[in-house]
Design a protein that fits this description.
By secondary structure, the chain is an alpha+beta fold. It contains 23 helices and 12 strands. The strands form 3 sheets. Strands 3, 4, 5, 7, 10 and 12 form a 6-stranded antiparallel sheet that branches. Strands 6-11-8-9 form a 4-stranded antiparallel sheet, with no helix packed on it. Strands 1-2 form a two-stranded antiparallel ribbon. A hairpin with a 2-residue loop joins β8 and β9. The longest helix is centred in the N-terminal third of the chain and has 26 residues. The chain is globular and about 90 Å long.
Length: 633
């Protein structure tokens, strides 16, 4: 501690001081990073021309500045994007930029801020050089660019983990630091965003927070003007990557404020070193400056809201959904993160000067993340918007582990029980990451019934996948039912012509099928009256069809309704594309739903395929079956 710093802030350091040698945590980082590299190579997606590539979806939006400016010299109109969308299919539409409101026709402004583009610049030029050397297209999106950005992200992850290690060793032992790093990497969704989705913002923001912590520690130990400037510059870069990261400012502001006396001491220090504060502000302005300059160039305004109709609702945050929903609940998909939450108690007792800024940041950040109207944040595993905050949560995480590794005070049984639970949760986390990469865990539309249907499964069934869309399933295992075919529509006896989309191009065990495309939203329907088949309320009906597509029947749905006098009593539908679908081959989709409790013999059951703005596919053998329970003794 610098002699000029007030004594009330001395609780910022462990009594033992920083660990002089920390071999375990260093070895852990190196071994874990090698495992992360291996995982990256297991699922490279470098040379793919599809939405599974590196520079796709939101990542493309962060990246678009670089090829637009340095390759195509067309940052204002981005006409090259049409070719990129055609050749690489990085997303379903070019939403990453849009027409400048009130601007000239065709003038575009990027949706996302340019912070990641700034950090990616050296990797972009490395990829550009490699593309020319290896005779790949120098178009900004060929394999060398993808590889450069992917492994550039992993290098940033290594930097962030190294900085976090240095911070933790200031206050905790090498063993505790090692455990935090292992649990963080293997036990949370940080793994996904430092390995497979390393081109997303969260990996870089995590490293930015680790750097902010390190610079904050150093300034409070030995205040310097350069240190203050770089704290501000880091804050500015965090905001440049993602404007909502302005909440990070509470970390250096409240650092060391564990009591009223410490607060007075901090204010006195700030007054004494006011030039440092001025330089911090200057650093922050310089860090964020590229964005208002770009906005002014593109739109004529230094401040511009580029997210359209997407907003924050700060008075109505989705706290429960963010934390506990099966769609994207943080603690559902990363239950090991309960440990740092519990660790706030231990941190409060041992390092209150750290607990106050960490807790203030966590609460404020959680509120901001939850207040975003699209609280599920698109495709992800768990709550990706909280991944960057793990750098700050590492402090209470370490405090919890420091409490647990003292069996002479806590009891060996408690430590062993926690260790067993941690291993099980790490196993669950890694397995769910595998499920996510295999598209078993849906990136956007998970729900409770589907989550438990696929839990611990490597090969879900069609009945499991149907639960993504319908709320019902057979009450018992399928072996307790006898399927009884009620009716089938095989299109064999229907006239083949372009108007009806009945085609003889292909069929499943027949010569004809229905060709679903943009011009034919509804297939012919299978229609039957319940009374004609002695169907009663509560009987389970299985709706099914055969599907053929080249690249997936995306957007198409199999629909089953029960109607009375033209009014719908029940409406159920499932998507035709799932993990069991076969490219260029016939597959079957089906789901089971009960007839409504008030069903009448005169009610009508209809089954058809809905293809509104969906991919082209062929449909055959639309069928209805009664799942008749077997007699049991």
């Amino acid at each position: 501690m610098n002699p000029g710093c007030p004594s009330a802030m001395t609780d910022l350091r462990s009594p033992a001081g920083p660990t002089p040698r920390a071999p375990y945590s260093l070895l852990a980082i190196l071994v874990l990073f090698l495992l992360m590299l291996q995982a990256r190579l297991w699922a490279p997606y470098f040379d793919t021309h599809s939405t599974q590539g590196i520079l796709t979806w939101d990542a493309m939006g962060y990246y678009i500045y670089l090829p637009a400016h340095f390759i195509y010299h067309d940052l204002g109109h981005m006409k090259f994007a049409q070719d990129i969308m055609r050749d690489y299919q990085p997303s379903s539409s070019f939403y990453q930029a849009f027409q400048v409101p009130g601007g000239p026709e065709g003038a575009l402004v990027a949706k996302y801020t340019c912070g990641l583009a700034v950090l990616w610049t050296p990797f972009f030029f490395l990829g550009h050089w490699a593309a020319g050397w290896l005779d790949y297209p120098q178009d900004g999106f060929s394999a060398p660019y993808q590889i450069a950005i992917a492994f550039g992200g992993m290098l940033f992850a290594l930097l962030g983990l190294g900085l976090l290690r240095r911070v933790l060793l200031r206050y905790f032992s090498d063993v505790v630091t090692t455990l935090v790093l292992v649990l963080l990497i293997l036990g949370s969704n940080y793994f996904q965003y430092s390995v497979f989705d390393a081109a997303m913002a969260h990996n870089y923001l995590f490293t930015g927070y680790a750097l902010l912590l390190w610079l904050t520690v150093r300034w409070h130990e030995r205040p310097t003007r350069a240190g203050a400037f770089f704290i501000g510059l880091t804050l500015g870069l965090l905001v440049l990557i993602r404007p909502s990261e302005a909440v990070a400012a509470v970390v250096p502001v409240l650092w060391g404020v564990g009591s009223w006396a410490a607060l007075r001491a901090k204010l006195a220090l700030v007054r004494t070193r006011w030039p440092d504060v001025a330089l911090l502000v200057l650093g922050g302005v310089l860090g964020v400056l590229p964005q208002p300059l770009y906005w002014h160039w593109a739109t004529g305004h230094f401040l511009f809201y580029s997210y359209g109709d997407q907003h924050f609702s700060f008075l109505k945050p989705h706290l429960w959904e963010v934390l506990f929903s099966f769609r994207k609940g943080w603690l559902i998909y990363s239950p090991l993160l309960l440990m740092p939450l519990a660790g706030f108690v231990a941190l409060w007792r041992t390092h209150r000067g750290l607990a106050v800024p960490a807790l203030a940041f966590f609460v404020l950040n959680l509120w901001v993340v939850s207040a975003w109207d699209i609280w599920w944040y698109g495709g992800s595993i768990g709550q990706r918007a909280l991944v960057q905050s793990y750098a700050v949560l590492a402090l209470p995480w370490a405090a919890a582990l420091a409490w647990l590794v003292q069996p002479q005070r806590r009891g060996t049984a408690v430590a062993v029980a926690v260790a067993v639970v941690a291993v099980l949760l790490i196993s669950l986390n890694l397995f769910q990451h595998w499920q996510y990469m295999q598209s078993i865990i849906n990136p956007d539309e998970m729900n409770r019934r589907y989550y438990f249907a696929i839990f611990n499964k490597t090969k879900p069934t069609q009945a499991d996948y149907a639960l993504l869309d319908v709320k019902t399933h057979l009450p018992r295992a399928e072996r307790y039912y006898t399927p009884k075919v009620l009716a089938k529509l095989d299109f064999e006896n229907l006239p083949s012509d372009a108007a009806s989309a009945i085609t003889a191009d292909r069929g499943y065990y027949s010569k004809q099928s229905f060709h679903a495309d943009a011009a034919h939203a509804f297939s012919p329907e299978l229609k039957l009256t319940l009374g004609d088949f002695s169907l009663n309320p509560g009987h389970y009906i299985r709706a099914s069809c055969r599907v053929y597509s080249d690249y997936g029947a995306w957007g198409n749905r199999l629909v089953m309704t029960v109607e009375r006098n033209g009014k719908t009593l029940t409406w159920d539908a499932i998507r035709l594309q799932n993990n069991l679908s076969v490219a260029r081959g016939w597959g079957q989709v089906y789901f089971d739903a009960p007839l409504p409790a008030n069903a009448l013999p005169s009610d009508v059951l209809r089954i058809y395929v809905l293809s509104d703005n969906a991919s082209s596919c062929y449909i055959d053998d639309i069928q209805a079956e009664w799942m008749k329970p077997k007699m049991t003794h």
